[in-house]
Amino acid sequence: MSVRVSFLGTGDAFSAGGRHQAGYLVQDGSTSVLLDAGSSTLASMKQHGIDPAAVDLVLISHLHGDHFAGLPFLFLEYIFERKRQRPLRIAGPPGTEERVWSLFRALYRDRAGEPLPFEVQFTEMAPGAPVSFDAVHVDPFRVPHQEKDVSLALRVAIAGRTILYSGDTGWTEALVEHSQGTDLFICECCYFETRLSMHLDYPRLAENRSRFGTRRMILTHLGREVHARHKEVEIEMASDGLTVDI
Fold first, then answer.
1. Is residue 173 packed enough to be buried (19+ CB in 10 Å), middle (13-18) or exposed (0-12)?
2. Largest alpha-carbon pair distance within the chain?
């Protein structure tokens, strides 16, 4: 059985090139896992004919708006449009539950003051502590993106396939280590000319491409520098609406 990965949002926080913000739907035929939920995730699902009700589990890499601010809109979808009764599971770094409810209250105070018609089950993921959600196994590890709050990369095993998702991160040898034996590496590539400690740039990734032990590597979270110089990029780049079977 193959696993399908749908790239819902492949842009940065500024939606460079008109791309949606971070969101990747992983489906094995019986389970649907959403990796991150940027603010435009629901719009992208509807644009590309994906049923939002299919989502069973949401894995959040870190608590920046372009990676989790789409959750309140999913809640509204499940309240009014695709009425949900089964639980929604959300897992993320420490503080996820409080931040999600705080955001929901900030955006829709009246609605957030009423009970949801479905249960939301939160799980905090600690770096280095693998966790399982039925047949989905997640190995989270910390990456250098934020100084105080925890940012995670996620190695996800589902239906005999393994996906590494970098989240947002600067360079770390942990990416090389955890990429070994994976079927797909979804890797952020925010910059080209600029080199920062909190994000990855294309030259750094190109220099280390042969060290990543993955069958397929796709660049995402593409910023304006990469968008402007895309013809120079020799590693596969994602686009909104791309689907990959692994």
1. exposed
2. 52
- Contact partners, residue 200, CB within 8 Å, separation at least 6: 166, 169, 170, 171, 187, 188, 189, 190, 191
Provide the annotated active-site residues. 66
What predicted TM-score, i.e. pTM, was given to this entire model? 0.98
CA distances from 170 to 4, 73, 145, 173, 201 (A): 27, 29, 6, 10, 8
Q: What DSSP letter does each residue of the chain carry, written as one string? A: ---EEEEEE-B-TT-GGGPPPSEEEEE-SS-EEEEEE-TTHHHHHHHTT--GGG--EEE-S---HHHHTTHHHHHHIIIIIS---S-EEEEESTTHHHHHHHHHHHH-HHHHTS--SS-EEEEEPPTT--EEETTEEEEEEE-TT-SSS--EEEEEEETTEEEEE--S----HHHHHHHTTBSEEEEE--BSS---SSS-BHHHHHHHGGG--BS-EEEESB-HHHHHTGGG--S-B--TT-EEE-
| Residue located via tokens 């110089």 | 229
CB distance 170 to 191 below 8 Å: no
Per-residue model confidence as pLDDT tens digits over 194-228: 999 999 999 999 999 999 999 999 999 999 999 99
pLDDT tens by residue, 53-81: 999 999 999 999 999 999 999 999 999 99
